[in-house]
Amino acid sequence: MHDTLIPCCDAARYKILGYEDHANCADNMAYGLKELGVDPPPPPPPINIFMNIPVGPTGRLEIVPPICAPGDYVVLRAEMDCIVALSACPHDIFPVNGADAIPREVEYAVYPARRKAK
User: Fold this and answer.
1) Is the full-model pTM beyond 0.85?
2) I want to staple 33 with a disulfide (CB 3.0 to 4.6 A). Which of 18, 40, 48, 68 is the partner?
3) Alpha carbon of 48 to those of 2, 20, 108, 118: distances in Å?
4) Residue ranges per structural domain of the chain
């Protein structure tokens, strides 16, 4: 289960929730891009890997614990040169990181490109 409906969390959202200066994915990605010398654009629509946000029976989005387990993974393949910004979700208010609402670490690996057959 992966979510593509919920936007990237940001400082404005946390302020509305009463948590000023809370870590957030938008800032995490902006900091990472700045370290690469890239001017960060407004956060694009994210792919919230392992985030379980189903559409409920009334049509509203629900925030429920993920159905993944430690060690689960996805493999993404870039079809062109690109920059991928990754943020371990720091959300600790709703159960997007598990029923206990504790943010989890994330690991990633970059594999060398495979040569295309001629």
Assistant:
1) no
2) 40
3) 6, 23, 15, 36
4) 1-104
